[in-house]
User: Fold this.
Amino acid sequence: MQFPILSVIVLTPIIAGMLILLIPSDRKSEVRVLALGAAIIALMLSGWVYFNYDISVGGYQFLERYNWLPELGISYFVGVDGMNAPLVLLTGIVMFTGVLISWGIDDRPREFFAFLFILASGVFGVFVAQDLFMLFFFYEIAVFPMYLLISIWGWIKTREYAAMKLTLYLFIGSVISLVGGLAMYFKSGLNTFDMIQLSQANFSESFQIFWFPFVFFGFAVLGGIFPFHNWSPDGHVAAPTAVSMFHAGVLMKLGAFAALRVGIMLLPVGAEYWRWLILVLALINIVYGAFIAMVQTDFKYVIGFSSVSHMGLVMFGFATLNKEGLTGSGMQMFSHGVMTALFFAVVGMVYDRAHTREIGELGGFSKKMPWVAVAFIIGGLVSMGMPGLSGFTAEFPIFMGVWQVQPIFAIIASISIVITASYIIRIIGRVFFGPMSEEFDHHVGDVTTLDKLALVVLCVIMITIGVFPSIMSGLVSSGVDRILRLFGGA
Amino acid sequence: MDFVTNNILTLILFTPTLVALFLLFLPSGEKKLLRWTALLGSLIPFGFTLILWFSFNKNIPGFQFEDQSLWYEAIGSSFHLGVDGLSLTMVLLTTLLTPIALLASFSINERVKPYMILFLLLETGMLGVFLSLDLLVFFVFWEIGLVPMYFLINQWGSEKGEHEIWGGRKVSARTYASFKFIIYTMAGSLGLLLAIQMIGVSFGTFDLTQLFKLFPTATQLDNIPFNLSLETVKAIAFWAFVIAFAIKVPVWPFHTWLPDAHTEAPTAGSMILAGVLLKLGAYGFLRLVLPLYPQEAHQYAGALAFLAVMGIIFGALAAYGQDDFKRLVAYSSVNHMGFVVLGIAAAAYAVGSEDAILALNGAVLQMFNHGLSAAGMFFLVGVLYERAHTRNLNEYGGLFTLIPIYGGILIFTSMASLGLPGLNGFISEFLVVRGSWPIFSMATALSMIGLFFTGAYILKGIKKVLHGPTNEIWIGNIKEINFRELIVISPLIVLMLWIGIWPAWILDVINSAMKMLFG
Assistant:
């Protein structure tokens, strides 16, 4: 039997979380070291999976299967293909950098890391699950700790409101999806939750058309699709830094990925029927999200709404149902995850020192923390789709995919590029350059070495993908080919 | 040596980036070390370019030293480099001006390290545009160049001046100028981006050597919205390309970002901006627009010629009206680049004719010449500004007696810019006028009005700075041009004179390239 690497990846965070809870609460440094150790293990293993996935063989690899409730057809079944391998790696990266920049958390770090790691396990679980029941199981594990993390460690002014709003939105979404999932389970008559078998169930056209919106939009709520995106900026803003990174960086991809994995891949006919609606909603996400981001005065809200805009591009690519569009979406999920993790890390670093996020009050931070300024500039360029960075290599194929479906949509969506550029440049100018107020000049200092390490890791990844897109696109398109086969294409 | 000749384009393209990465690890306090490393590092690509220049065979049609490797397989884009006579000339200009501009920036004292790094990255961006033979890679480098230039203007630009924006809020002039520069150019490139996507979707490749054959003769394009006809779509795509490039050149009326950006940029930034960045737009016309859209270019050549003439006349008039020395030079770029566009428009109208080839020769040589003279002019303005801390022409006066060497150099460079026979500007402007006269007689005749005012604003500049009664505040307060500054300007002077007297060494290369491309 081969080494059960995926299970180890899924279980490492949660076991580490349990161990952390066993450490006495006054020994904070042991907690941090243990957390970092677990994060490094998860990162290395997910990197190993990413680089050892064999594209020439394709399909699901590193499969593991154990019966769990055979009478109901539920099994613990995990595996990766080209679509989710990058997302597993992304989770490893965000977990690692999230621990690095949370080093300074002083308020009950033990519980904080424990909850964060339970969340991480859930996320890993969703990405690798091949069993519908397991997917829901991990999905709820990922969503629930969010409530506690935000309401306990969040921004004091809005944390209760935001935590409640976020949790309710996501639970309602997942319940709606669950109904759809159960409908598939019963309709198929296969008595299994195995998604690979369900995808061959040949659901009737009317069944698919009826249930697709339940499944897709239920998950897409977590992906931030318009008009269900409302929870996300509030949630991002209220969450503590590492949680925002996780939240925007990974959790939103969780929704998008589940919508793809369960919605589009199990109900392809439904996807073709509803694609126009998805295209329109995603277009609204992209353009409207960018406009809203432009008028925000709170640094963190700008980033929050920019995530709404960028996640719209992921959905946009999904709805093209062609090779370029889906490949772009896969790349965009990874690229946006890294980029937005960087953004929230930067916002957190600025806020920790300035205790305000009003863009008008900030200024001149590049003098005090040059590394952070450079990192934000690189992230900003990724965000505005500057060629040579990962954002471009992800967005360009999406636009090409959309162009094949309906050029007008691509033309309208391209407006968002200029809007994004204008608000990113405005923030760079106002927050990092310009005059610094007297008050900050005295007490603002540079960030720690660990913070810098986290920023460097994220920046290097974005530049690498931008300069050598083939290290990811080959993998992603091998996954996309398998999706397209469901649609009868190659 | 084999390694060098086999990979020479890649080496030229990425040496600046490598030097920039190396600078990253040097201590930021060691200003001298940083400056010299950057300067010497930027001489390496220049050396490679000289090797390239001498081993380039101008009689072989098509591209030479081609280098192709996989880049983005999933969408059919490859990293494809190659040179012909046109791009070779531009590469020479870029690698020549970068060390000169870096030497000119030795007077920068603040944050030397990021400055030098950005400058070298900018060089890679510009070279990439000239060298790439893949539409997507072309676009990548096209956009990359914007970022370092934005920060150079935004961070090292002139510190004085405010600009009122809507809402009555005031921002510093360099913030305004840099923002205008980047947003203007990015918005202009959107159409280009979309047109590139359309081409990529329709042909499944971005490789220019293939697209040159496929695109002009295409009988159908995929996914045309609203059942538009093929002609309409191609015309729209043509204008998308043209607008993106016209903004960069800049063609009237898309030039409004230029006076702000040039005026606020640091001296070396203006030198590169005028010397090379403007050429990117003209190069785009020659490399992409004419070969990809021969019919549309022929159809709309008249409009382009009209805009070019407007640029020539209004550029000159606007330059004459300035009191700010740097702004005067900035508007002169609009005026001079107008001749480049005029030549291109004439050639687009009468493809293949003898006159068209002449006009194109003139246009390309004018690109090179304007690169030399505009860089020289901006440098001289910068030299004066560093001493006098004003750019207002009315505050100078009679400086010739105080700084005669500077005065002589300024007059020489101004004359090259004016187009005095015997200096480089004359050759190229004459070729453009000679080539486009039989094709667009009326437009060419009108452009002579612009040429007249060119003389007027150049003389105005010389008169206000050097002649007239000496403004007494400068007596004893202004220093003569120093040795480093002489080193900066001397290669430009030598080349201006050399091309003016014996242009054959460069015209041969340009001429054979134009004949093969458009003959």
